[in-house]
Amino acid sequence: MDFINILIGGWGNQFALASVQPLHSGEVVSYDSIIQLVNLNNTRYILKKRPRAGLQRSEFFHELKAQVLTHCVNTGVRVSEIIPTLAGEASAVYGDFCYELQVFIAGEPYTGNREQEKLIYSAAVKLRHSLDHLPDNIVEAIRQHPIPSLVEEENPILALEQARELLLAATKCNNLWKKTLLDALIPIVKMVENRHYLMLDAAPKKAIVHGDIHAGHWIFPKDEIGNVVVLDFDNLRYDTAGLDYAWAADTVSVNLGSKNKRFCPQKGADFLWRLVNDRKLTMDEAITAMQTLINYSLLITIDICKDVIFRGDTRIIWKKYLEILCLKRKSEILDCFREYPPGLYEGSPLNT
């Protein structure tokens, strides 16, 4: 079926007049989704097509996600809500694929300016408060629908042991990938001797988390000055409660407006310090949150490097993901948080 017929069947005959085109943001959007921009009577929508098998969770998860998004809206968190099908369901299923429709939100991406940092801090706190007050039945249902494993090796120690072999192989790759792979793997090899970056023995407090709010999942609407929207709840899961705060700290450390300095770890560390000062996290919880994010990023980075080096999978999207996962940035945020006093850079939130 083509996209127009899927829209008509799932959401109504009015979509017979719609136009559909691929959504492009300058790069490939997702490794396992096809995302279309739908235009109907000057209203734009996002239609997401995902496989039902493999990495995709059951259709029931879409219903849970829709309930979480509605709860977020009702508790003051700006998100893009799912539009129900004619049958009142969160997604439409055709053949081997699942389709989800949302209103398109026009806005600016995160660029690293001070006002955006403030909005991300406020939104991250609101999101944590909202998810902490989900009804118990939704929390339990999400726990029963864990995200499928994204990686071949789930043990961080074993993944570390594979890093040296991968690093040696990366030195023999062609120039198009060599620097990208070395940038990704060298920080991992250093962790072999410095395992304090990893969460190995802790039993952190757990809760429902977004799980993936990197810089690409915040958008600042053009028609809503002073607001920020949290996108893409596909990785919603039961995990370390502070994980979303760690992702937010990682986001504000990215220097998207600078050609000379790709990131400023002190900004991420100051973000964590502010959470500690505001009693949203303890120091130990902040460290555990960053360690959880480093664990997660380590395992996926190793798997992507295997795809590129050993499986010959050189899709350009892997470069985008390696930049999002960047272990050098995340480990330096943790170093700054542990070792140095906050407020050392101009514009620090702790200097305002």
Count of folded domains:
2
Q: Helical percent range?
A: 40-55%
C-alpha Rg, in Å?
A: 20 Å
- The low-confidence runs, each spanning 5 or more residues with pLDDT under 50, are 25-31
How far the N terminus sits from the C terminus, by CA atoms, comes to 55 Å
User: How many distinct beta strands?
Assistant: 10
Look at the helices and sheets and give the structural class: alpha+beta
| Tertiary shape | globular
Q: What would you say the CATH architecture of the largest domain is? A: Alpha-Beta Complex
**How do the strands of the widest beta sheet line up side by side?**
1-2-3-5-4
pLDDT average, as an integer?
A: 86
Biggest beta sheet summary: 5 strands, antiparallel
Strand content: 5-15%
Number of helical elements:
11
H/E topology pattern? HEEEHEEEHHHHEEEEHHHHH
CATH uppermost class of the largest domain: Alpha Beta
Oligomer state of the chains in this structure: single chain
